[in-house]
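A student in our group prepared the protein record below, which I am reviewing. I have pasted the whole thing underneath without changing anything:
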Amino acid sequence: MATMAKSIELDDINVRILRALQQDARISLSQLAEQAGLSASPCSVRLRRLEKLGYITGYVARVDERRFGEFITVFAEVTLIDQQDKTYKAFEKRVASIPEILECHSVSGDTDYILKICIDGMHNYQRLTEMLLEEMGYVRSFKSSVSMSTIKSNFQPAIEQLEKAISKQA
């Protein structure tokens, strides 16, 4: 992920570029320029600048994992045995190395972390949790909930939320 050395003014044109890319990251440059109200060359310059400064951190293809097998999505609440920095770092390092763990969020409250796990079947999930609990002697509790269905899934904040944040900065 790029770090922002400086920021740029996010005007209406930049917001239109971001909105169009959120809706379709494979949009052609000419279509993007048309939606932004620019010609291709200035649109390309703005796009490269948004990428360089870290406003755009990457592009992804959404894959339907159900097409590959009996994948399940599990949300797990993890509480560690203590609040020591070395415990947190060890846990985070191990979690980062497990590809089935899609997201790991450090949270406030009684739980230290919430994990989003996508794995092929309950048997493999059981093996993963056993490995985590045995291998990681610093997990106090591990509570999980299996997703029955996905009602809404979005990778990032809606551009409308970002526009509100931009207008507050002005």
Q: What stands out?
A: Residues 1-5 have pLDDT under 50 and may be disordered. The radius of gyration is 20 Å. The longest helix spans residues 122-135. The chain has two domains: 12-61, 65-146.
